[in-house]
Design brief:
7 helices; 12% strand; alpha/beta; single chain; 154 residues
């Protein structure tokens, strides 16, 4: 994890009244590797990253220069430094989120937001990945292409 935010899971355990001993255990490297293989069998191009920096590096290789990119609100993206990377202008992608937020006219902003949902790449996180290779994503923004990058954060 590159940085911890107020929304990082580590800060929400007490508030959510979660049994941290039961639900905050990190999976073993072997379990993560097995999940990657399972996801790949399901046709999901999954890659395992050792940390947030490596996850961001992998993501950078998956999206070609000039691609139209939209992203969802994702704590994981903040934690790996994605938001800083994209907002700094370092990427060679067309940042559709920035275009939406820069538009002051409400009607035009709605149209840009609608069009951004069909971006070539929509980057977001998932809420859970099961050992059987299912991705669980809850999002109010619409359909998303999920790039599977698994982190085992220690």
């Amino acid at each position: 994890m590159s940085k911890v935010t107020q929304y990082s899971a580590i800060n929400l355990i007490e508030e959510a009244h979660v049994d941290a001993e039961r639900w905050n255990e990190l999976p073993s490297n072997e379990k993560v590797a097995n999940i990657v293989v399972t996801l790949q069998r399901h046709g999901i191009r999954a890659k395992q990253a050792a940390d947030g920096r490596e996850a961001l590096d992998i993501l950078k290789t998956l999206i070609p220069s000039g691609a139209k990119v939209m992203d969802g609100a994702s704590v994981t993206l903040f934690e790996i430094g994605y938001r800083e990377f994209v907002d700094s202008g370092q990427s060679s992608w067309q940042n559709l989120r920035a275009a939406v937020h820069a538009e002051n006219d409400a009607a035009k902003r709605r149209e840009l937001r609608r069009k951004s949902m069909t971006a070539q790449y929509f980057v977001s996180g998932v809420n859970a990945i099961t050992e059987s290779g299912e991705l669980v994503a809850c999002d109010t923004g619409g359909a998303a292409l999920v790039l599977g990058i698994l982190l085992r954060i220690t």
